[in-house]
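Weekly modeling sync, notes
Attendees: S.R. (lead), two postdocs, one rotation student

Agenda item 3: backlog of single-chain predictions. S.R. asked that every request posted to the team notebook include the full sequence so nobody has to chase files. The rotation student volunteered to paste the first one in as an example of the format we agreed on. Action items at the bottom.

Example entry:
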Amino acid sequence: MASVGGTIMLVILMDNQVLASQQVCQGCLLADQSGQPRWRGGQLCCGHLVRPSIDNQPSQYDCQMGFRMANIQ
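Predicted structure, as returned to the notebook:
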């Protein structure tokens, strides 16, 4: 799992797997210079929110490359 901006952890959700974002994002043209998802001001700049955090469930995002991401705090 990758730490982004302090306590925020972004992970990639795939079928029955949870991958560290650095495993996928380091090869992405939309990632920042360190190979991490572009996270600024509490928002994922390279994706969009598809499910806000509800009842201790993490927020989920669809990145522009087609992966589902979760924000684990």
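Discussion: group reviewed the output briefly. The helical segments are 21-25.
Action items: rotation student to repeat for the remaining queue; S.R. to check formatting next week.
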